[in-house]
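Data availability (excerpt). All sequences and predicted token strings are deposited with the supplementary files. A representative entry, PCDGH protein, is shown inline so that the format can be inspected without opening the archive.
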Amino acid sequence: RRGLVKMERRHGQRRSMGAQAVLLCAWLLCWGCRAAPERLRYAIPEETGSGTVVGPLARDLGLSPAHLPARQLRISSEKHYFAVSADTGHLYVSERLDREEMCGDSASCTVSLEVVVQNPLNVFHVDVDIQDINDNSPVFSEATLDLEIGELILPGARFPLEMAQDPDVGSNSLLSYQLTENPSFRLEVKESPDGSRQPELVLEAALDREKQSSFQMVLTAVDGGSPPRSGTVQIHINVTDANDNAPVFSKSAYEARVRENVPTGSLVLQVRATDADAGSNGRVSYSFSNVPDAVLAVFSIDSDSGDIRNVGMLDFELRNKYTFLVEARDGGALSSHCKVHVDIMDENDNAPEITTFLVVDTVPEDSPPGTVVALVNVHDADSGDNGKVWCELEGESPLSIVASSGSSYKVVTASALDRERASEHNVTVVASDRGSPSLSSRTALSLSVSDVNDNAPVFEEAAYNAYVSENNAAGAVVLRVRARDADAGANGRVSYWLVGGSAGEAAAAAAPYVSVEARSGTLYAQRSFDYEQCREFAVEVRAQDGGSPARSSTATVRVFVLDLNDNAPHVLWPTAATPGSPGSSSVVSGPFEVVPRSAEAGYLVSKVVAVDADSGRNAWLSYELVQATEPALFRVALQSGEVRTARAVSERDAARQRLVVAVKDHGQPALSATATLHVVLAESLQEALPALSERAAGAESPSDLQFYLVLALALLCALFVLSVALAVAARVRRA
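Structure token line:
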């Protein structure tokens, strides 16, 4: 109750201080900064019920209730005694607190917690002092204490009694002793330098076994708690015949230092007591006096030699000091006690314990250096240098570990991350102590790197060339472009389109020729290509990923139209020829050429001139004389198309000659055209006129006849109309 009153006073002081702190925080907020204490400390009595509030943790850290969901206030320590309220931010008790169970006989009992807040990440240390309450009564090891006292013992003799044990600490374990009144005995308490109180029974008057052979008394041990608690033991004294010398130890207190983990059965120390009596009264036996079970589980004593050995494993981390009483008793039931102190020396037998807490399972690859990805807490149960620990990371990765506070470390990014090079980083946290030899522990830490859109699509080629034969079908595949994006998911999903139209006018001229499929990157012909109209064109294809913002790149596609033999030769001279279908010919008429009859062999008559719209072999032309009035009289040059006399002209040759020349290309299949050349053999133009007149008359008769027929029909119609008009006029006059 007194502890609770103190706590209420303490909370009242905190509330008064809290008002001042509010004003201070308001001033600090005006300057845009907030500070929280590096270490908080609370105190609470043991045996406090579950749900009891320990303290306003969020307020003491400078956090408002409205910010608690975003800051994610929580306890990262592996202690299950306390929890944090998600609504109020108060630190409260989550299970029963028993100081004796938690801290044993330690004078102080403190539970250290690590509190983590997010956004931004920070770690705070909180200490909760568990205050002792008087919840344990003093206890004697036996319900009855038997003593044998010789009748010849002189008054003033002292007989040490068993000390009671109280698990509480401080004033709650400070014992006082009371003895029921008896005229033959009184109680004295001897205080040791370590603060313990040894009750002793002092003989006040001489004993006479024949008058009274036994005594019954009650020894009461009372602690200093409020309210006090007590325990009792019955003392039974048997008066024996004379044994006037009690055993005497060589020391009143023995001390020993022994290393933990020594083999079972090792000698810890030897106590020695002597008795001046002879016979059985001088034979000394040794035993423990009122020692707790924890001591009996670890040590044993040889009743004859006084050798104290360990029967259980000594563990410095469980208990580093033992203090107990050893009793020496002679055959006449006289006894004496000595105190034994055994200090356990620490050895480096505990490897560090590593506790990891991942702040994030996945970190974006654009996270800046210094981003906290995990918290590491290291604890070594050893002490001194054996308990000093340092941490490092094993494995090549862009991560590093830095000390935070106390035994806490932060795993942070040391350099830029690149998911395309490594999508996951596996490192090993190694914690080593400074003992000799050093002990270490390892734990694996895995971190995934999430993708951001930091890579543009890359085409397999910077420029593509496609070759398409002309006269292709609309919708035919021209080419497939492909771009790869090293990113993942939507960031690496590539779509294609032509640059132009609404996005620009770079490919506006070429856009009607081709289209591109957005997903596959396949270019399709929009129309049939004509080599003679367009021999090549270029278009830019853009590849864009699905990221936000999107990234893109372009590639140039140059399309070359391949020529097919789809154009027949076109005769320019002597007249334009009408092209025929493949393998066919067309006939054209042309002007006359006059060749003197005195012409010799090789005389140039004329030259057939033709062109082909195709290219390459499809445009290579050859000339051939396919028909002539006198085949032996003329010849045609294969390559040039020149028409020359093959021999001298003779008088027997007809005056009018007709030549048909075929012009053929070298395509597959070949196309051709023909030209007709009329030649008149005459010395002069006057001599050639009769032949020309005959041909002109013969040539004009069809057209003239047609003209005359139309003219005659018109005249007949006019005469008919005139006759009708005259007849009507005559009738009118007659009437």
